[in-house]
């Protein structure tokens, strides 16, 4: 008998610079991803806002869909700039992200 282990999906954390509210930018990324790749692919990407700062935020998404998310970030209006990407929030912060520290 062979048992399959359940594993959590790997995710990536992306630091973005934006103008305006961070929740508006994340909603625009999700909407654009849905327009480009379909609503099912957008839901499977699991794009979530993790931390927010004044002009910089950290979002997370699944590793399998990182290319689609980066394309959606590139093609949204108003423009958003990706400043870093990592597998952990701690490593992303140590690379120079200026996002507010966790509480």
Strand content: 15-25%
CATH architecture: 2-Layer Sandwich
The H/E string reads EHHEEHEH
What radius of gyration results from the CA coordinates? 14 Å
Number of domain modules: 1
What's the CATH first level?
Alpha Beta
Global mean pLDDT: 88
The CATH homologous superfamily is called: Ribonuclease P, Pop5 subunit
- Return residue spans where pLDDT drops below 50 for at least 5 consecutive residues: none
| Spatial gap, N to C terminus | 46 Å
Q: Which class do the helix and strand fractions yield?
A: alpha+beta
| Strand order of the biggest β-sheet | 2-3-1-4
Q: Please tally the helical runs, counting DSSP H or I stretches of 4 or more residues.
A: 4
Largest sheet: 4 strands, antiparallel
Query: Shape, please?
Result: globular
Number of strands: 4
From the 3D structure, determine the CATH topology. Alpha-Beta Plaits
